[in-house]
Amino acid sequence: MRYVALVCLLTIFSFQPTTPPKLSPEHQKALESLRVMEGFTVEMVAAEPLIADPVAMEVDENGDMYVVEMHGYPLDVSGSGKVKLLKDTDNDGYPDKSIIFADKLTLPTGIMRWKNGFIVTDAPDVLYLEDTNNDGKADIRQKMLTGFALSNPQHNLNTPRFELDNWIYLGHEGAVTPFVFKKEFGDKGTDIIFPDKLSAARLAPNANGKAVRFKPDSYELEELSGRTQYGHSMDAWGHHFYTSNANHIYHEVLANTYLRNNSALLVPNATQNISDHGEAAEIYPITETPNHQLLTDVGVITSSCGITWYGGGAFGEKFNNVTFIAEPVHNLVHADVLRDAGASFTASRLNEKSEFLASKDAWFRPVNFYVGPDGALYVIDYYRQIVEHPEWMSDEITQSGALYNGTDKGRIYRIVPNKGLPMNWLGKLNLSKRSSPELVALLDHENSWYRRTAQRLLLHRQAKEAVPALHALLKKSKLPEAKAHALWLLDGVQAIEKEDIVQALKNETAGVRENGIRVAERYLNAAFGKELINELLALQNDENAKVRFQLLNTLGLVKTAESEKARLAILQRDMHDRWAGLAGIASFAGKENQIFDLSIAEFTNKPTPETSEFIANVAATIAGGENKAVFSEMMQKIMSETPNPETWKAAALNGIAKRWQFQKGKGTVLLSEPQKEKLLAHFSPTASPELCTASLKVLEISGLPKGKLVDEKIAQAKAALKTPSSLALQGSKADAFLAQAVAFLSMLNSDEMKPIFQQALNQKEPEAVQLAALRALGKTADVQTCRFLLNEMKDFSPALKKEAVSVFLSKPERINILLKAIETKEVEKSVVSWPQMVRLMNYYDVDIRAYARKVLSVNEDRKAVLQKYMAALDLKGSQPKGRAVFENNCATCHQIEGVKGVNFGPDLSTLRSRNAQSVLTEIINPNNSIADMYDFWTLELKNGSALAGIIAQENTNNVSIREMGGTLSVIQKKDIAKIQKAEQSIMPNGLEHAISLQEMADLIAFIKKQ
Questions:
Q1: In a 10 Å sphere around its CB, with 0-12 CB exposed, 13-18 middle and 19+ buried, how is residue 848 labelled?
Q2: Residue 274 CA to chain centroid, in angstroms?
Q3: pLDDT on residue 11
Q4: Nearest-5° angle of CA 124, CA 127, CA 131?
């Protein structure tokens, strides 16, 4: 079979060496400015005036080359975008003529060959363009899909890709809220629909900001579980990789297909960051005169895009699992090697102290790649002076007239091994004229371009005549990837047989087995479905973690005792892999009690944080479901007397409490009186503090039981608080129980308890007890109690002051009392901590927000304040002292390398290589820019509570929100009454008033590591 493929290719290529045409002095200089990894050579394939502003390319089956030009970036939405067809008229192998195939596109972002035309992404649409009269110009323009947000061009719908499983995948993420260019990019999107078949599948508005896949012919349309900025890619086996700004590579691990199996499972994120060198990873530019804007994160990955898994087969074994990332801000291309890590991967630098490709030229702007028919890597260079968007630039740059410098330029480079690769395919492939058996032979090619092109052509033909050759390929090919293509193609032409799938399931290559499982999943209800299931069950002890992970997901669709047994066996082996745990829960919808039992046994044998998290996730899922019998069975286990039970029980109860806190009345419905009594029994000096606290959390939501046990526990709590020495406990254990006593009494919601709580605020009491007393007062605080707290606050410790302010923040009417006290100087403004100030200044109630900003903000002219602190730039800063300033003032909202801060706002490591004035500007005037995906939202819930923070993820059913303090909560949309977004930075003005000039110099030195 490999011989047949070789013969076929010999008829395509003459394999005569080709010589690039002579370049102009300007283009020769650009080429000479490039430095590529040792062993490779760079050639220029196309440049202006042939092309300009290129962002994507495609080569069709005949070797015709099409280039997408986005002239409108950053602000022009008038329709200046184009697609060009490049031609070789002098037969030297390189293009020398361009034809405008399509124009009047808004901001086109990607192109893909489909049937006799091309799919082009141009928000809000996915377009189909076709040339029916062979004049090189599209005369058909149809909308395949529509409804995507026309947002900031950096974040629009992009990169259509035909993949191994016969689906077309689209890169996509949520619309970024503009604060400056609202008119141009304020669109939020609508339902995603097929406009020519409104009865077909549709997605929620803007697909909930997720990536999308679809099949045009069958009108299938699905939202994925991950999202990506510009670009996405799959490896040879269909694993999906994304990229976004500083986070240059992450993996969609748990597909939405399987998440949907269990609607009660709440997953905050279905993707895994896989870089072992972190987000905002250090990079090694060689730019001689870099042109960075004020807000650019210099020296670290900040603009990653165009992620491309290399499958060309021409670079040697070292590149078999390599991805390329474009980093246009720093004029370079970064490369990573991917290695298996359980259900996911680890990505490591290809080169430790250098990049795969870098340029000395500050205008070199790689934005995308293409692996060509020759196996070369084509680098698409947008070639602009400025690539940062003016949404995040200074006004001076926006108004300078430089935004479109270079819009008449653009280059495409070709990277080849030093031994060379002939450039003789342009317009000469003629694969469309190949017979179906000849195309099947190309599935055995080492270059994925041929495999994917041949698969697409055979799929379009619905080539039944190719079926015998596909069966033979599955049996005889020595290239494992060919078997995966053949398998999916047989599925696509509806000619697959049981033996085809069985062969794949028994293949020696894990990737083939993994795809065999995916294909088998489509035939579970076929006539031979039962036989397939038996073959799948035989793989439960497979040596490969990814095969077991896929099997766990697929067997979740098989509702038999044997399937459950196999899934339990996989879980027992892989439970410590978080993704296997989540997949297991998704697969046991309605029967989560089985894996709950398994998790208890595993925790008893090997208690780890991973098993504790797994128990909490299982318990939360059961508590959020509708199966009362399964919940009751779980509660019986939690209440049972088993050896050393407290730790896993506490984990389970914490999971239940976390799930119920956002669901109105859920605990009241599911928890019986006897169960409540047993939970209350855990309120005891002899119970573990963890179990006692977790039990009280659940009871606080569900309500206390009725009967004499409550009276007995009230008496016990009062006695302990009155005479702590009566407890047979000492030190922290005694303090913990006294705090729990206060927490228990606070559930009674009785004015009778207020004197007890006020007395507990006595400075002689341990701080843990005083904090519990403040929380208790917060549940029933009236005006009188608020006055009491204002009077006492001056004597509180910093922790108590913060908690006291939280009492005021819990109700709108209390907030006004606090703000009034601050305004009249009854209370110092400093009692409000920085995160609390952020929350107040972004409060969902318009009047309270305005009042907070009036009372708390500093109304100086920000330019004047900045000018004042410019003096800090002339002072020598101390990194150790700057660390202390960071920990005291910044770590409540931010992380940075070397400091355990809070994952809420952007990681300030990204500021490390900015110039000092830029760092200072961000601190003094936070509204100067709002980082992507850091909008501040307030969620009002139907149970009367509210959450405020940053939306981390969203899908059809759930919203994940990261609150101040870093807590990540997942809320079902059905539990949300109202959602509102702030239009200011989450970081208010005024932080500098806690920092002196010298401390500012120290802080900048620490951030910049200088």
A1: middle
A2: 11
A3: 40
A4: 155
Q: Are 623 and 972 in contact (CB under 8 A)?
A: no
Dist CA 304 CA 294 (whole Å)? 18
With contact defined as beta carbons under 8 Å apart, do 961 and 968 qualify? yes
Identify the burial level of 16 via C-beta atoms within 10 angstroms of its C-beta, where 0-12 means exposed, 13-18 middle and 19 or more buried: exposed
CA-CA distances (angstroms) from residue 88 to 21, 63, 529? 12, 11, 52
Which residues neighbour 196 within 8 Å (Cβ) at sequence distance 6 or greater? Answer: 142, 143
Provide the pairing of β-strand 247-252 with 357-359.
unpaired
Neighbours of 162 (CB within 10 A): 18
Cβ within 8 Å of residue 721, ≥6 positions away: 738, 741, 742, 756, 760, 769
Q: Which residue has the tokens 């699905």?
A: 222
Q: Which two tokens stand for residue 678?
A: 């047993």
Residue ranges, the chain, pLDDT below 70: 1-17, 177-179, 291-298, 390-400, 642-645, 763, 858-863, 891-893, 897-915, 918, 922, 924-935, 955-956, 964-966, 981-994, 1010
φ/ψ of 790, rounded to 5, equals -65, -35
The SS3 assignment for 182 reads helix
Q: How far apart are the first and last CA of the chain?
A: 61
Q: Is the peptide bond before 268 cis (omega within 30 degrees of 0)?
A: no
> Tokens 């905050």 map to which residue?
268
Sign of CA dihedral 677, 680, 685, 686: positive
What residues pair up with 509 in beta bridges, in sequence order?
A: none
Are 378 and 369 a contacting pair, CB within 8 Å? yes
Say if CB 933 and CB 954 are below 8 A apart: no
Q: Beta strands of 88-178 (E only): which ranges?
A: 97-105, 110-114, 117-122, 125-130, 140-146, 158-162, 168-171
Q: Are residues 356 and 324 in contact, defined by beta-carbon separation less than 8 angstroms?
A: yes
**Cα–Cα distance, 298 to 293 (Å, whole number):** 9
Half-sphere exposure of 436 (CA within 13 A, CB side): 17
Residue closest to 269 by CA, chosen among 251, 281, 257: 251
For residues 757 and 777, the answer to whether their CB atoms sit within 8 Å is yes
Instruction: Please state the three-class secondary structure of 647-680 as a single string.
Output: HHHHHHHHHHHHHHCCCCCHHHHHCCHHHHHHHH
Helical ranges in 22-99 per DSSP H? 25-32
Number of Cβ within 10 Å of residue 132's Cβ equals 10
Q: How many residues does the chain have?
A: 1010
* pTM of the predicted protein model: 0.87
CB 161 within 8 A of CB 113: no
Instruction: Kindly give, in sequence order, each residue whose CB lies less than 8 Å from that of residue 32, ignoring residues fewer than 6 positions away.
Output: none
CA–CA distance, 841 with 517 (Å, rounded to integer)? 52
> Residue 279's Cα: distance from chain center in Å?
12
The reported pLDDT for the residue numbered 182 is 76
Does residue 192 contact residue 206 with C-beta atoms inside 8 Å? yes
pLDDT score recorded for residue 925: 63
Q: Is the dihedral of CA 102, 103, 104, 106 positive or negative?
A: positive
Give the helix/strand (H/E) hosting 545: helix 545-555
* CA-to-CA separations, 250 to 269, 278, 307, 343, 937, in angstroms, rounded: 11, 11, 10, 13, 25
- The per-residue pLDDT for 794 is 83
Dihedral pair phi/psi, residue 1004, rounded to 5°: -65, -40
At residue 949, the pLDDT reads 76
Residue 234 to residues 210, 311, 369, 701, Cα–Cα distance (Å): 16, 10, 14, 45
Helices 480-492, 448-461: inter-axial angle, 10-degree rounding: 20
Q: Is the dihedral of CA 433, 437, 441, 442 positive or negative?
A: positive
- The residue behind tokens 């976004």 is 244
Residue 645 is predicted with a pLDDT of: 60
Beta bridge partners of 120: 111, 127
H or E element that contains 721: helix 708-722
Per-residue tokens: 489 = 């193609």
